[in-house]
Write a structure and sequence with these properties.
Layout (H helix, E strand, L loop, with lengths): L2 H9 L8 E6 L9 E6 L4 E6 L5 E7 L2 E2 L32 E4 L8 E4 L10 E4 L11 E10 L2 E13 L5 E11 L4 E10 L5 E3 L2 E6 L9 E4 L1 E7 L1 H6 L16 E7 L6 E8 L4 E8 L5 E7 L6 E7 L6 H7 L3 E3 L4 E10 L1
Antiparallel strand pairs: 1-2, 2-3, 3-4, 4-5, 6-14, 7-8, 9-10, 10-11, 11-12, 12-23, 13-22, 14-21, 15-18, 16-17, 17-20, 18-19, 19-23, 20-21
Protein name: DUF4432 family protein
Pfam families: DUF4432 (PF14486)
Organism: Nonomuraea angiospora
Length: about 350
C-alpha cells in the first residue's frame, strides 16, 4: 500500500468519505426507474451517469455550481419514448443533460433512406427520427467502482448499449467513463462495433449541453475557428452573438453553426465555454480524426437557455447526403471505431 493510500485509509472508515461511485435508482415522475451512477471526485466535481439512457451524463456540477444543462423534460425514462412519434421530433421530449448521444446509424434531422444492405425485401427503407435511437436505449451495466493505480484512485463505470433488430442493424456501443479521485476531468471512451454480418451505416455525434450558471450573459465560447462553413437562417434573422453570449430571450429560434476548427499540435480539437464572473470554464477535447466536424447549437430561448458543443463524424447535411457523396461510414462485419473525449472543469 502506497503512503497516500495508507494515509487515506487511516483517515476514513470508507473511501466514500473522499469520493466514489454509487448506484441509485430514480424514483419519481418521468424519471422513475432510471438507474443512475453518482460520481463524486472530492474536488467539487460531481456528475450522474444515466445507465438506462445510453450511459449519458445528466446532471453535472463543480463546487455546487451546475454546468450540465437541465431542460424542462427531466431525464425521461426510455420506456416512455416513441422513436417515430411527432414526425421524428419526439427526441425533443427527452432532451436534457450534459451529454445526449446521437447515433448509432443516424444523426441530425430525420428522414428515410434505403435499407438494401440488410437484404430483407419487406424492409425497403429505414425511417429515422431526430438524432437516431441511441440516446433512449438502456445499457447493460458491466461494472463500476473505484480502482487504485499506485497513489491514483480511478472512479469508473462501463456498460454496453445494443441497437439491433432482426433483418436490420446490429450495432454495439461499449462506453467507459472515468474520473480521478481529487480530479477535475471526465474521460469518455466509446467503441462502436458492427456486431452483424452485413455492412452497417454508422454516424455518431455528442450533443454536449452547457447551461446556467456557467452559461449566462457575458459567458463566451473559446475555440480556434478557421472558418464557419454553414449557419442556419435564424443567424441572419436574429444576429445573436455566438461568441460572447447574450442572456435568455422569449421566442428565440435556435441558431446552429458548423465551424471548421484548427487542431492543436497534438491533433486535438479543444472548445470551451468560460464565465469570467464565476471564474469557471468547461473545456471539451477530442481527436480531430475521430470527430472531424463540429457544430455549435445556440439556444437562448427563455426557459430552455443552453449552448451545445457537438463533435460529429459527419457534415451537417445529414444521412442521405452522406450516402450520396460517399462520406457515409460503413462498418464491415465485426468492425469497430473508438472515440476518446475529455471534459475538464477549471
Amino acid at each position: 500500500m502506497t503512503p497516500e493510500r495508507r494515509r487515506l485509509a487511516e483517515l476514513t472508515g470508507d473511501l466514500s468519505a473522499a469520493g466514489g461511485v454509487r448506484l441509485v435508482t430514480l424514483g419519481d415522475g418521468v424519471e422513475r426507474g432510471i438507474r443512475t451512477l453518482e460520481f463524486r471526485t472530492g474536488s467539487g466535481l460531481a456528475f450522474d451517469v444515466l445507465v438506462d439512457r445510453c450511459m449519458d451524463i445528466g446532471h453535472a456540477e463543480h463546487a455546487g455550481r451546475s454546468f450540465g444543462w437541465r431542460s424542462p423534460t427531466g431525464f425521461r425514462h426510455p420506456g416512455l419514448h416513441e422513436n417515430a412519434d411527432e414526425d421524428g421530433l419526439s427526441w425533443l421530449r427527452s432532451f436534457s443533460g450534459l451529454i445526449v448521444t446521437a447515433g448509432l446509424d443516424h444523426t441530425l434531422f430525420g428522414g428515410e433512406v434505403p435499407a438494401d444492405t440488410y437484404h430483407y425485401p419487406p424492409r425497403r427503407s429505414v425511417r429515422h427520427g431526430l438524432h437516431g435511437r441511441a440516446g433512449n436505449l438502456p445499457a447493460r451495466l458491466t461494472g463500476y467502482g473505484e480502482r487504485w493505480d499506485g497513489d491514483r484512485c480511478v472512479l469508473w463505470a462501463e456498460g454496453e448499449v445494443r441497437q439491433a433488430a432482426v433483418f436490420a442493424e446490429n450495432l454495439r456501443l461499449v462506453r467507459r467513463i472515468e474520473a480521478d479521485l481529487g480530479g477535475d476531468e471526465i474521460r469518455l471512451v466509446d467503441t462502436v462495433t458492427n456486431a452483424g454480418f452485413e455492412p452497417a451505416p454508422h454516424m455518431f455525434l455528442y450533443h454536449i449541453n452547457l447551461g446556467w450558471p456557467l452559461l449566462d450573459e457575458g459567458a463566451r465560447l473559446e475555440a480556434d475557428i478557421r472558418e464557419t462553413l454553414w449557419q442556419s437562417d435564424s443567424v441572419a434573422e436574429q444576429k445573436a452573438d455566438h461568441v460572447t453570449f447574450p442572456g435568455p430571450a422569449p421566442g428565440f429560434v435556435e441558431q446552429v453553426y458548423e465551424h471548421a476548427l484548427n487542431p492543436g499540435a497534438d491533433g486535438l480539437h479543444r472548445v470551451a465555454v468560460a464565465n469570467d464572473r464565476l471564474g469557471m470554464k468547461v473545456t471539451v477535447e477530442w481527436r480531430a480524426e475521430e470527430f472531424p466536424y463540429f457544430f455549435e447549437w445556440l439556444n437562448l430561448r427563455s426557459g430552455n437557455y443552453a449552448v451545445g458543443l457537438e463533435p460529429s463524424t459527419h457534415h451537417v447535411s445529414g444521412n442521405a447526403a452522406a450516402r450520396e457523396d460517399g462520406s457515409m461510414i460503413w462498418l464491415g462485419p465485426q468492425e469497430s471505431r473508438t472515440y476518446k473525449t475529455t471534459f475538464r472543469v477549471s
